[in-house]
Design a protein that fits this description.
HIT family, subunit A, alpha+beta, 5 strands, 2 helices, five-stranded antiparallel β-sheet, 115 residues
């Protein structure tokens, strides 16, 4: 939370760094990951700066649901019938950018367990 967002995603939101955007609205944007881990790898990020899912509060409930609906929309628009959505929370779980984001991965078989 807060409005100081010096992450790469904050810079993308402000237009300081280009991104291959595939969707945007007043609450979030979605774009292609520059280091894809699958043939289709999209990121959905809220415009509001939330560090991670652990910092989300009750008032963000609608926003969190919106992010998942947008994830499904961009997956389907990318031609995916099957995909994985991932939200890493904390460095130990693989979060490297501390602005909440939903990974949308598809275009290849996914393994379980994931990591």
């Amino acid at each position: 939370m807060g409005d100081s967002n010096d992450t790469i995603f904050g810079k993308i939101l402000r237009g300081e760094i280009p991104a291959d955007r595939v969707y945007e609205d007043d609450r979030c944007i979605a774009f292609r990951d520059v280091q894809p881990q699958a043939p289709v790898h999209l990121l959905v990020i809220p415009r509001e700066h939330l560090i991670s899912l652990a910092q989300a509060e009750q008032q963000q409930e609608a926003l969190l649901g919106h992010l998942l609906l947008v994830a499904a929309r961009v997956a389907q628009e990318a031609g995916l019938n099957d995909w994985r959505t991932v939200i890493n929370t904390g460095a130990g779980a693989g979060q490297t950018v501390f602005h909440l984001h939903v990974h949308v991965l598809g275009g290849r078989p996914m393994q379980w367990p994931p990591g």
